[in-house]
C-alpha cells in the first residue's frame, strides 16, 4: 500500500515530462515552418556565448 503514492507520483512526473518535451518540439517545429519571420527573435541555447 505504501508504493501507491510513489507510483502515482512517478506516473504523473513521466506524463508531465513527456508533455513538456512534446510541446517544446512542437513550438520549435512551428517556428521553423510557419513563423520564419519570428525565428530570429528567439535566442536558442546553442546561440548563446559560453
Automatic annotation (TrEMBL):
It comes from Thermus scotoductus. The chain crosses the membrane at residues 6-31. This is Nitrate transporter permease. It comes from the Bacteria. Keywords: Membrane, Transmembrane, Transmembrane helix. The keyword Transmembrane helix applies.
Amino acid at each position: 500500500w505504501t508504493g501507491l503514492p510513489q507510483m502515482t507520483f512517478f506516473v504523473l512526473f513521466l506524463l508531465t515530462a513527456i508533455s513538456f518535451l512534446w510541446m517544446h518540439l512542437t513550438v520549435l517545429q512551428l517556428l521553423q515552418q510557419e513563423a520564419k519571420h519570428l525565428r530570429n527573435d528567439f535566442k536558442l541555447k546553442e546561440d548563446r556565448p559560453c
